[in-house]
Design brief:
This protein is mainly α. The chain has helices spanning 2-6, 12-36, 43-69, 82-85, 94-111, 115-138, 155-166, 176-192, 197-209, 215-232.
């Protein structure tokens, strides 16, 4: 586990890639948004916003990892209820669990109407992150340990084991996957309508089917994301 945690630190080569990535990503976001007529932002605005986002996202991950290493101040608890016994384990949903986030972020980047609205969204996202981390510190919640006791005999199970190497069994309540999915999806409603809620549904289901979260983690996660969005956007 210590080795997995060490990989969460940025090596020089990853930092160099992080610095260069906004140049490529901003060009991709700009041309796709222009092709579909989704945003009127200039390339310079896209470069500014992508650079800001590239700094904020890794920083947010570091805060999340910090709470994992420092969530032993209070007694951990488990919120497993009877509904969890009827939810099957489908490890193939780990691909949705791991990558739908980036689809959501990409969708917003293509559709962002202005850099000002993007900055407001980032600020609200940081507020959401801080609130989540307060929950993780003050009320640490863990999954049943037997949920992680499976044989990695398929590609999906191997990848799920890899994800679990970074994502400890604590930091479960409320589900950060669900809160962020809700927060970003609500920002996409003006562009995609209520179809944006499909993202929330898919990520919530992936949290349950991969046994990364309990049922009692999911609903509060959705609620927290919605509350922060309507308070700060």
């Amino acid at each position: 586990m210590e080795e997995a945690r060490q990989t969460s630190e940025f090596s020089p080569k990853w930092m160099f890639l992080l610095i260069l990535s906004p140049l490529a990503l901003s060009a991709i976001y700009f041309w796709i948004s222009r092709f579909f007529g989704m945003s009127g932002m200039s390339y310079v605005d896209y470069l500014k916003f992508t650079t800001l986002l590239t700094a904020v996202v890794p920083g947010g991950y570091q805060l999340y990892f910090w709470t994992q290493r420092n969530s032993n101040f209070f007694k951990s608890r488990c919120f497993k209820i009877w509904i969890d016994d009827y939810i099957p384990f489908y490890p193939s949903w780990v691909w949705v669990y791991s990558f739908m986030y980036y689809v959501l972020i990409g969708a917003f980047m293509f559709a962002i109407p202005s850099i000002e609205q993007g900055v407001y969204l980032i600020f609200g996202g940081l507020v959401l992150l801080v609130v989540q981390c307060l929950f993780f510190i003050l009320m640490p919640v863990v999954n049943p340990p037997e949920w992680r006791q499976f044989e990695a005999n398929t590609v999906s199970k191997k990848f799920l084991k890899f994800v679990q190497g970074f994502d400890d069994e604590n930091n479960c309540f409320p589900s950060m996957h669900c809160s962020l999915a809700t927060y970003i999806s609500l920002a996409l409603v003006p562009v995609f309508g209520y179809y944006a809620f499909i993202f929330i549904f898919l990520i919530a289901v992936s949290c349950l089917f991969t046994k990364q979260h309990q049922f009692m983690d999911v609903i509060p996660g959705v609620g927290l994301g919605a509350i922060v969005f309507y308070l700060f956007n």
